[in-house]
Amino acid sequence: MSRLSFLVPVLCGASWLAQGASAAQGFIRGDWDASGDLRINDPILHFGNLFLGERGPGCLDAADSNGDLRLDISDGIYTLLFLFAGGAPPPPPFPACGTEVEGLGCERFEACGEPCPRPIDPEILGNLVLHAYSTSVRTGQSVSFILGVWTCCVWVEPVEACVAWSVSPPGSAIVFPETGTVRVEPSVPHGTVITVTADVESGRRLLTADLHVYTPEMNPFVGTWREAAQIECGTGAEAAPEQPIEELVFEADGYFSVTWTPFEVYKDYWGRYAYDLATGAVSLEAEAGNYVPPDLLRPARGSFALRDGELRLLDLWLGTPRFDDDPPAPRCGQVFGRR
User: Fold this and answer.
1) Where residue 314 sits, what CATH number does that domain have?
2) Quick check: 9 pLDDT over 60?
3) The domain spanning residue 55 has which CATH number?
């Protein structure tokens, strides 16, 4: 892949200045020796190059630890402060491989592989999506992304591409570029939104997706549930549904969906939900759908109880299924089990 502009290094004291360079090669900022890790030998090599005339870095952008488009003593100091004094981490791309659209330049960086040799067809490039089947992720767990194009509006067909991955906030997750897997660090708190960026072919296309981090203690709803029983009004008796809701899905971003007969990506209706752990109150507000039951309460407000993998929604009703010739009268609650 050709560069968008040329690198013109200018020696100014013991520093290098950027003159409109851009990098096609992926790199990790601060990783002077391209080992894949930021270690004490990186600032040592940096100082040796600046003041003792020892060999220079193969990737100037990687040596620019603080991202100010200069190579000088401040880069080595910045790395040392991060490693040993609790200083700020290097700006992206860090700690995973990435690229710099306007930087000092990067001829080679062994830990991130070679620059992309063959560009993607422009039509395919324009249709690329960054897709995960769920954007809800527990702390310390992983989500796999697919870079590809939609096929028949249902499946994402993977596309081989040169991709530099990054996450924000920095350090919140680790990206495994070979698989597109993103693992959230265990220390990331509930409610954090992690933005995953796929830089395709050094800026030809930037794709982003948000991951919503949760803990089961703070949001016990997240996941997929199946209807097991319906609760009669007045008596509280439980009866098995003739046609159960097969998928009641809660996501960590506050959205839910209801589907009686799942097929590929089809859902009956969807909307937003809210809950209060202290009072046990819950509400589900349908916003749109392929089928919204006429007897659905909007919003559906009631209470919930969670115990031993069972979710009880009380004093609310999620509606009757489509094509029911003799629908039952609305009930006063539903019982779900995890799928």
Assistant:
1) 2.40.128.490
2) no
3) 1.10.1330.10
Total count of domains within the chain: 3
Residue 326 token pair = 């003799």
Last residue of a domain, one of 181, 214, 247: 214
Closest CA to 10 of 62, 69, 76: 69
Q: Does residue 93 fall inside a structural domain?
A: yes
Domain of residue 17 covers 10-112
Burial (CB count within 10 angstroms: exposed 0-12, middle 13-18, buried 19+), residue 212: buried
Contact 178, 161 (CB under 8 A): no
Last residue of a domain, one of 170, 197, 214: 214
Among 32-36, 79-83, 298-302, 323-327, the minimum mean pLDDT is found in 323-327
Task: For the chain, report the end-to-end CA distance as a whole number of angstroms.
Answer: 47
C-alpha torsion sign, points 42, 48, 50, 54: negative
pTM (2 d.p.)? 0.68
Instruction: Give whole-number Cα distances, 337 to 124, 164, 239, 241, in Å.
Output: 42, 40, 15, 13
Quickly tell me which residue has 């993977």 as its tokens: 158
* Contact call for residues 209 and 133 (beta carbons, < 8 A): no
Strand, helix or coil for residue 62:
helix
- pLDDT digit string (tens) for 204-218? 899 999 999 999 999
Euclidean distance between CA atoms 199 and 296, whole angstroms? 43
